[in-house]
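REQUEST FORM: STRUCTURE PREDICTION
Request ID: SP-0412
Submitted by: Lab K.M.
Chain count: 1
Length (residues): 230
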Amino acid sequence: MLKKLLIIALASLALVGCAKAKTDEELVAEGWVKNPAENGYVFQEELPAARDLTKKYTPSQGAAEVNCAADSYAAACSGVGVANLEKFLNRDDVIYIDLRDYKDYAQKHFKNFEVVPYFAYIFNATANTDATMVQLFGGSPTEPVAVYNESVAILNAIFPKDKTIFLMCQSGGRVVQMMQILAANGYDMSKIYNVGGVGQYTDSKYAKMITDSGEFRVEAVYSLEGATRK
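STATUS: Completed
RESULT:
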């Protein structure tokens, strides 16, 4: 009997050893994604909804209550933020964008977020009437006025419509305006996340994910070339 069990066990091991390795396509179909930070694959956790409209959030320090049904783009309403952002970093299906200017970004930022200065390049209320301004849009965030013939094309290049996008700034306010501009330009807002501000990520678990170099000083001159004003 023992000999028979041993033969069965060896046969099982042989079958396991001969199992065909899965292809990249098969792994992706099962929910695995290539981790750009490491070799090999990691299991891709399903993203929560971009916003929870049922939330009512009362910030500390006496700030006004956030009612997500009326202010759904607020960071407090986001499905990804301080509590769980670490679960959703380094994904190849997400674009990570920091909307602060280069000066603040150089001093402290999440390592996998690229900088796109919102007030320098994306929006200024008078950009459509003041020829000295270089921003893509003027007017208001909810009713943006394209400054250039190419404004929308440039916006689509920076913020690809076929990708999920995580937006960050200093406290989340610039992200709200950016989301309003994206919504006005036909984006699927179920794929746009306000993950809040760098200043909110004080938990020690985020220390290794953030570049903190307060000694850096950057003086930036912002210009836009090759675009034609309307």
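NOTES: The longest strand covers residues 164-169.
Reviewed by: T.R.
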